[in-house]
Amino acid sequence: MTIPSKIQSYMVAAKPILTMLTGEGSRLVDEAGCGFTAQSSDFRQLADNIKRMSKLDESALKMMGQSAKEYSDREFNRDKLITQLENLFDELIDQSVMGRKIGVKKKVLITGGSGFVGSTLLDHLLSLDRHYLVTASRHASVDSTENLDFFQTGDIGPETEWSRALNGC
Fold first, then answer.
1. Would you say 110 and 93 are in contact if contact means Cβ atoms under 8 Å apart?
2. DSSP string covering 34-52, please?
3. pLDDT grade, residue 57 (50/70/90)?
4. Distance from the CA of 137 to the CA of which of 35, 54, 95, 162 falls in 20 to 30 A?
5. CB 163: neighbour CB atoms within 10 A?
6. Under a CB-based contact definition with an 8 Å cutoff, are residues 161 and 152 in contact?
7. Which pLDDT value is given to residue 54?
C-alpha cells in the first residue's frame, strides 16, 4: 500500500482533493469523502470532476476539507501508527520466538534504523532484549549495539555484506 505523501499533506491542511491516480490515494479520498477521483489516464473524468468541484459553493468545499482533516487525524495519527508498527513487530517476534522453540531460527533485518520510524522501532525492539540485524544511515546513533547480531552504519554495499546481514533472516 503506497499513499502519495501529497494526499496526506492535503488532508492535514483540510483541503478538498482532486485525484487522477489509481490505487490507495484515490481510495482514501473516496473513503474520506474529501474530493473527487479519476483513475490514472482518465482525463475526461478529471475534467468532469474539475467542473463539478468548481460549481461547489464555499461551504461544500469547506465540508470536504473538514472531512479530509478528520480522516487524517483519525487514520494518520503518529502515535497510533507507531503503536500499530510496534504491535505488528511484537507479533512477528512472538512468532519467531515460538519458531525457535521448535528449532526454527529467525532474525529480523531492520533497514533505515536512524529514520523516525526505524529508530523508534529499533528502540522498542532493543528494549525487548532480543537480537536483531540493523543497517542504518551514516548518521545513526544507537546507544548500545550489544544485542545486535549485525550493525552497520551507511549503505550495505557489496553482495558479501548483504549475505552476511541476511544470514539467518
1. no
2. -EEEE-TT-HHHHHHHHHH
3. very high
4. 95
5. 10
6. yes
7. 96
